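**User:** I keep going back and forth on a fold encoding question. It is easy to fool oneself when nobody else works the same problem. Could you pick a protein and write out its sequence and tokenised fold? Could you put it straight underneath, so I can go through it closely?

**Assistant:**
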Amino acid sequence: MADIGTDHGHLPMWCLENGIVPFAILSDINEGPIGKAKLRIERSSMAEDSYSLRLGSGLSVLKPGEADTVVIAGMGGELTSRLLAAVPEVTDSVQRFVFQPRSRAGMLREWLWSNGWRICEERLVRERRRLCQIFAAEKGTQEPYDYPDIPECEDPLMIAFLDRELVNIRIVMDNLLRSKEPADRNKLEALQRKASILEQRREVLWKNSNY
């Protein structure tokens, strides 16, 4: 596996230590994180032939076919899309991507659908007060979601995620209600439809939950 933007290298090291992968590539665009990852590895009992530390941008540090699974976590969806598009020969050689976009997850999903990838698994994870979207993609086709920024999964945290989204939507709607611009009226109507659909999804999830 390859971890692009590895930071301290926690994820690839955990995968190696637990026998999840036989070899891991730890990559970052900055020297600081690479140095910290190297120090942590040196303090462990990791075999030297089980990892590779690389300094560089995105997938440019990889050769085509070098990594079966590539993780890109903690970056925005727009930046991640640009990194995927920058080195198509590497991107197309990967069997599975795992993403955790910090923002604009919908833009990343749309890029994947437009470039021959399908979302094969989705989960939500709570990180302190933040709800993080995590999803994996493999080669294939898929019908795009009506709202690409909203995951379509039955995760236990989905109700909390929809609650948060509905709060954000209503804040924007309140601001648009004060506007007299015709374009804002169209935006308001679109958000009202979205809110209605998300409320229905939330109601179904609530009825099917164990609460």
Q: What stands out?
A: Residues 124 and 158 are 7 Å apart (CA to CA). The mean pLDDT is 95.
